[in-house]
Amino acid sequence: MKRTTISTAAAFVAVCGMTVSASAASTPDLPKPVSTTKATWTPQVAVVYGDGNNHEVWDYEALSNGVVAACGKFVQVRPRNTSAWTIVGGVFAFNSTGARIGQLTSFRPSVKTVSSSGVVSEGTVNKCELGYDGTSLVIAGSFNRVNDVAVSNVAKINTSTGAVESFPVATNGVVSDLVKANGKYWLFGKFWTVNGRSSAGIATVNPDGSFSTYYKSKLSGQISTQAGPTSAFRAAFTADETLMVAIVNSSTIDGQPRRHLAVWNLGGTNATLRNWQLDKTLTTNNTTCQRFAVGRGLSIVPGTYDAILGSTGGANNGICDQTMRFALNGTGTVSAKWSNYTCGDTIHSVAATTGATYSQGHMKCTETLVGGARDYADRNGIFALSTGTGSLITSWRSDQARCVGGKSLYVLNKTGFPQGLLSGSDCDYGIIFRPL
Q1: Strand 408-412 vs strand 365-367: parallel, antiparallel, or unpaired?
Q2: Strand, helix or coil for residue 383
Q3: What per-residue confidence (pLDDT) applies to 19?
Q4: Which residues of 242-262 are buried (b: 16+ CB within 10 A; e: fewer)?
Q5: Which residues contact 277 (CB under 8 A, 6 or more apart)?
Q6: Distance CA 307, CA 236 (A)
């Protein structure tokens, strides 16, 4: 999944005959597993499982001076162990260090959706990124008002004043992911135009919000007729920004067969589809796994050209219901280096570090050893695997309420912030932090 905030430990790492250099899309890293004990200082988001409102945190972003932005769909938040709720709408920020640890800041833009008939409802912020200017937060999702300023699913907000800044990006559908890379903002989602230009599912815009022709590939078709419109869900970039992998709902890209996953080479002037297919993505005898885009979480293994995928879909077939690691710099049909299956339950988000790979969702258990051994060990809501082998780190157990399953994992490792792992949950307190 994410991310783009922190550089890898080394500026240059030689991997697989290629050189990975730290840059905007570098993956933050932690050298060992985080604590199984959850911090008690995090704020509490008002989440009520089963109320139909889908309140939860979808993303985090480290701003500056220990301040973390939380983005998602919610209307109330409060510091832990206090009774008074603060009204928020889609974005708020809190202190992660110092005397005011766990306290809210004044940064809390109001994100809404107003229908053509004037009905006001909550907006949803799926992703947020610190802007290229370092003084703004770019948010993306499903909304058309921020602080009563008309926008179209994307907005740029000054982190000091909370004011909506000029950023003329407009999509005609939901944006599910936003990533900063190659000097552009990358948009992924269920849209067909960006700034009035045709660009189905994936598009690039310049730092000033103008449309960029850097991305030119054409997604078309669907995984199946049941899978919804042509779209993209999430993406991850290698640290040197030479390769991008994306979860897609398509049948072809640039006329080439691509379902579930696709990889692009990122050159100086444009992105080109790579001759790359994961061997399990095109299985035709697994109807369950072909009904929809089963990929849910993506993360780059720090210092490598490998990615981690977490998936849903049922039946433990194809790429369904598992955590898997695969190389992006191969060509042709590529096999996973390892796959660890849950007992038929969904993974929504993953985070790869050298110390461990974390998978989060509404799983009840996962394999102790990789490869379909079905030697399941009980783990609720989250588990940790060896990034190298895919086997369960049996000493790490930090269960959390499952509900539908947390959609965000964010590795925090930036100067001025505590080191650890932030989870977004649709249960309990909504925000979970496990320190290193």
Answers
A1: unpaired
A2: strand
A3: 38
A4: bbbbbbbbbbebeeeebbbbb
A5: 257, 258, 261, 332, 333, 334
A6: 8
Tokens of 371: 């490869």
- How many angstroms separate the CA atoms of 297 and 246, rounded? 10
Other beta carbons within 10 angstroms of residue 115's beta carbon come to: 9
Sign of CA dihedral 173, 178, 182, 184: positive
d(C-alpha 327, C-alpha 312), whole Å: 20
Backbone angles phi, psi at 98, to 5 degrees: 75, -170
Q: Is the dihedral of CA 119, 122, 125, 130 positive or negative?
A: positive
The CA distance from 213 to 242, in Å, is 17
Specify the length of the chain in residues.
436
pLDDT tens track for 229-242: 999 999 999 999 99
- Do the Cβ atoms of 25 and 237 come closer than 8 Å? yes
Q: Where are the beta strands (DSSP E) in 227-337?
A: 231-237, 243-249, 252-253, 256-257, 260-266, 271-273, 276-278, 295-300, 306-311, 322-327, 332-334
d(C-alpha 423, C-alpha 401), whole Å: 12
Sign of torsion over alpha carbons 406, 412, 417, 419: positive
* Percent of the chain's residues with pLDDT above 70: 91
In 3D space, the residue among 51, 65, 114 whose CA is nearest the CA of residue 93 turns out to be 65
Q: Provide the pLDDT confidence category of residue 287 given band limits of 50, 70 and 90.
A: low
Q: Give me the half-sphere count of Cα atoms (radius 13 Å) on the Cβ side of residue 194.
A: 29
Yes or no: say if 202 and 213 are a contact pair by the CB < 8 Å rule. no
- Please state, in angstroms and rounded to a whole number, the distance separating the CA atoms of residues 435 and 30: 10
Using the Cα atoms of residue 267, residue 271, residue 275 and residue 281 in order, give the sign of their dihedral: positive
Half-sphere exposure of 148 (CA within 13 A, CB side): 0
d(CA 432, CA 47): 13
Structure tokens that stand for 147 in this block: 């602080």
Cα 18–chain centre separation: 26
Tokens describing residue 230: 């042509």
Measured between alpha carbons, how far is 32 from 105 in angstroms, rounded to an integer?
A: 31
Amino acid symbol at 201: G
- For 290, phi and psi rounded to 5 degrees? -100, 0
> 409, 383 in Cβ contact below 8 A?
no
The alpha carbon of residue 419 and the mean position of all alpha carbons in its chain are separated, in whole angstroms, by: 19
- Residue 228 has φ and ψ, to the nearest 5°, of 85, -175
pTM of the model: 0.93
pLDDT by residue (tens digit) across 74-132? 999 999 888 999 999 999 999 999 999 999 999 999 999 999 999 999 999 999 999 99
